[in-house]
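Record 1 of the preview.
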Amino acid sequence: MTLWEQPWIWQIAVPIIGAVAGSALFYYLSHREKVEIKYANMIVQLLETNETTTDIKIECTFSLLYAKGTRDCYISETWLELDRRLWKKLRKYFEEVPLRMGGIPGPNGLKKLELGKPQPLGIDLSSRARKVITDEEHKELDDLVQKLWQRYKIGWKDTYGKTHWKTINQLREIQKRGIL
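->
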């Protein structure tokens, strides 16, 4: 009988292997990077430039917080994605309102996140109406704009090429902060 065929060797080996695997898992989970979105806010406005022209202005501001990690963390790209159902309705009124708007956060294409310090970022877009908007269409657009800022997604690409997305329910965020 070899050493590995002995029943007592497995009684010793299994707990040791389990402890090593558990320690490795704990180390991995405690040392991975964590980036969070803080202070997300979107404002959507209909602007009357003159009596025949209407523009839409979308401004989204947010902060990314490097909450946990041991390596340097850079953001190479950020995105704002609108609710698909609302975006389809919006497309028939405005020329250039993409489903996903993006931008490069820094002048050299990278924005460094420092541990524990929120980094403010934002995405802006303006678009002109395709046609003259009637009063009835304007009311429909007002309702659409009120719904548009309530739910959206913010995305970013980190140093290691991984893309992250977070759905923002702005009404829930406002209620959490006690504003409403």
